[in-house]
Amino acid sequence: MTETVSGKAAAQAKAGSGAGLKIERVFSTEGVHPYDEITWERRDVVQTNWKTGETVFEQRGVEFPDFWSVNASTIVTTKYFRGAVGSDQREWSLKHIVDRVVKTYTKAGRDFGYFRSEVDAEVFEHELTWLLVHQYFSFNSPVWFNVGTPSPQQVSACFILSVDDSMDSILNWYKEEGFIFKGGSGAGLNLSRIRSSKELLSSGGTASGPVSFMRGADASAGTIKSGGATRRAAKMVVLDVDHPDIEEFVETKAREEDKIRALRDAGFDMDLGGRDITSVQYQNANNSVRVSDEFMRAVEDGTDFGLRARKTGEVIERVDARGLFRKIATAAWECADPGLQYDDTINDWHTNPETGRITASNPCSEYMSLDNSSCNLASLNLLKFLKDDDTFDGELFAKAVELIITAMDISICFADFPTESIGKTTVDYRQLGIGYANLGALLMAMGLGYDSDGGRAMASTITSLMTGTSYKRSAELAGVVGPYNGYARNAEAHKRVMRKHQAANDTVRTLSIADSQVHKLATQAWADVIALGETNGFRNAQASVLAPTGTIGFMMDCDTTGIEPDFSLVKFKKLVGGGSMQIVNQTIPRALKKLGYQPEQVEAIVAYIAEHGHVVDAPGLKTEHYEVFDTAMGTRSIKPMGHVRMMAAAQPFLSGAISKTCNLPEDATVEEVEEIYLQSWKLGLKATAIYRDNCKVGQPLADGGGKAKKDAADAAAAADEAATKVVEKIVYAPTRKRLPKSRVSRTTSFTVGGAEGYMTSGAHDDGELGEIFLKLGKQGSTLAGVMDAFSIAVSIGLQYGVPLETYVSKFTNLRFEPAGLTDDPDVRMSQSIMDYIFRRLALDYLPYDKRAALGIYSAEERQRYLETGSYEPIEETGSPAELIEAPVVELVETPEAKDEPVVTHDSHGSDQREVPATPAKTAHTSAELLEQITGHAVDSPLCFTCGTKMRPAGSCYVCEGCGSTSGCS
User: Fold this and answer.
1) Does any domain span residue 219?
2) Is residue 172 annotated as part of the catalytic site, yes or no?
3) The domain containing residue 117 runs over which residues?
4) Which residue ranges have biased composition labelled Basic and acidic residues (predicted)?
């Protein structure tokens, strides 16, 4: 940034009565550096754009812990390593970036009097290092970009600006916003001070109105984005509902969407990133209407509502409140904008009302504070705090929160800011934004549905404990280095909000031992907040928000971002050394075990999910457990009000708000949008945004009708036709490998669900299976005849070269009667006789590695897994983490078989469909994989960096291939 204000001079720590903090060692080991407890390995990071084949990044020999995924190490290498690629100054190890950040924080803590002794400073350094390298939390991206480098030490990701009713102020708005965009961050502001187009200027002319000035700001953001930023500029524009230009503001983006459709139909390239999309306006901002309780009550009562002049405050026009509300909902239904921000709720929880009202938010809507301010964020990985007994370790979580909040406050002491006014406000009020990720995965692992009373109770108590602990530490810091500069004039208001949080905590109704334990800790934390705050005051005006955690979520190897549920039950994973594979969500087996399912049942359910992408009709899964596995997308996706209710469960325990979008199906109605907005207000949310599937033209491969779907269908048809033509040219003449006259065979008697039978199998001299004979039913019966014919067909197929594993993958998990218990200790449960027969054949004739790939293990191997975490003897395997990570389906694409169908197998013997490995059909991300499995497109943009489809993260989108975001940090 060319205009940077240092926080160092302005942030001199105010001396308090304490002598520094005593830092407790909780995570690290005394006498051992955190790095020395880890096995490190070298990797090559090579990133390509799959569409063009162009290598967009390459750095070889980077160093990471062996338990970090390839995806996490790739994103950190490409996004956070500093220095020119290929130069000696380029960072090449995770140790480098963690050291430059942690050592900078520790030095500032020493310089500004945060630690009681040098020993405490060293413990702080080790604890922070341990938490980061073990992926327990992460700072927001600007910290990794800037801290410890020659660049300005900007640590904040979220900014709120202000603009007054003057040309100087408006032009300054353009300038300040431009500097923030240039640095890769986003900003929001409220335009309601600008006179409407229905009011007069002092010269006697008519004012232009805020919407006209939005055009200039939008063009500026688009230009700066085009100048080489890795993601589009992120903006939030807010207008009060009583502004006379509110209807024009509401309809701006909806009218532009109509224009986009007309231009698209005329042949222009109007997709997101298309060359003609720049001809339309207002596409670089999220729009929100700031509504008051007065307006919402008028909507309920069906009365009119007054629009007020900006200068005098007098009512210059009255409108029907329900009519205006319908226009807001209709515009959101048409193009996803505007969202709503609930002004009275926001300001009722404001700790600094004597300084000024909260009028706006950052682009993702989670940071809501004073004008001309900023907030630095950090998020914890909740799944790391799940104990072996599937309860949440609230005590350990609270210890981590205390340390992280301390570090976040220290950062303000040395931080730089893009403008003088932002620097002053941030230093004076020290806004922090601690939050979390992986809530969806945590709830699933605990056997709790996201849209359930149990899930909401757990989320409430964890959020309450996080914010209560944060303010407790803030009060302790105030006793050491003094309260924030603006505390004195806002002391009563701040303490009133603390009591509101405490009262909200008292209303939480716990449903289990797990959430009761966390709630007990939260209750004690809030009691300490009230007592310590009365004595010391508080170091921070704000403590917590729930951010999207896009890029940093991948850095922590989180399955889910922010407060979101799981995106889908199948994931896309990169492999060390190149390639990728499909994995079933790692928390599913743990959840099934928590719900009481046996290992054989877990194998069958996971195999079903690998094939179908959902749990509906999964073998043996009880319907009452379906809700545990509900996801954001696909079959059994969570209903819109389920998202709203979860936000409402967490909101009373957050200083700020929540970045989240309520997704609606394409056939949703305007009335449903109205209901979501109305219920969000009644449930006490601070902000709500919606997105209806396929409502935007510029979303490639949108599900539903229209040109996007037609284009996708045409492309798929063309790819299938091309593949067929190539396959027709291949001549393949199989030869039969007959069995010797005398061969080794074995006969197995079995019982499945009470039905008895016999199987005789014969092998070639090399031990390869060559024939089977099945004896079921009485001689001469229809069943016996069918089994004889089936045996001959399978035997001939084996002799003509059909691999046994192909038969196993096709016939295991077939479900029909008789089914149930067997008398075979290696296969205790069977879905059918066919399921049993081919599992038995796999155990008898397939080597371990092929059986493991199909998820078929002997009783001895399963027992070994329970004891050691490995199916194989320890000396023959890799790390246990590699073995238990997840069932997989490898996606194969080789040059010589590029256009032929490829049969995929999952690790539990699931019958996988044949996936043509053509470029048009190959998945590159979880979003594309979900499309492939379900046949329904995910309505999200393509990544500008690597060309893959992004997935939702809060109110933004994130690319799981390279970590790029659509505006959030």
Assistant:
1) no
2) no
3) 5-139+369-552
4) 898-914
